[in-house]
Amino acid sequence: MIIPVESNTPNPTMTKFIFATELTKSLKNTIHLADTKANIVLTIQTFLISTILAATIIEDIFKEIKEEEHLLKYGFLLFLIIFLIVSIIGLVLAVLVFIPRKSTLNHHEDARSVTYYADIKSFGTSLDYYKAVNTMTDNDLVEELAVENYNLSFIISKKMDYTRKAILALFTSIMLAIIIVFFVLAIK
To answer: pTM of the prediction?
Structure first.
């Protein structure tokens, strides 16, 4: 009787599949991180704008400025306008992080991805989707995940770029807000 010897070498397709799925999880976590950072920037930026533009503060400032202090008045207005412009740019950049991206997959008209949500919903029923997944070979699934990971990397790159720029705009807004507060203190 021959006893089969178990091999300690892992199945190469399974190793590739595990790598691809773990990478997909990692990339999706990075996307979530970018979304979270953008949400924080959006919240802080909105708070800054509403605080600086509080109607009572601005109204009181202009009442306090004497007619002779044009330089102070124009300096305050200049920093306020720059603050608003930078803050609005920061808000727009933070919002751009949340805009869904389309797949850049180049499919034939009849080919559909089993990993991209827009393609998954295009299957007629859940049974059709199940059949499509079930008929794929392990290598096909690994290839599909590799293409998805490739596309996710472009999405992450764009999201992180917008997030980085939104954070820079936030820090600039904070600095301008501090300068505006100094103007307020100097006027009063």
So the answer is: 0.75
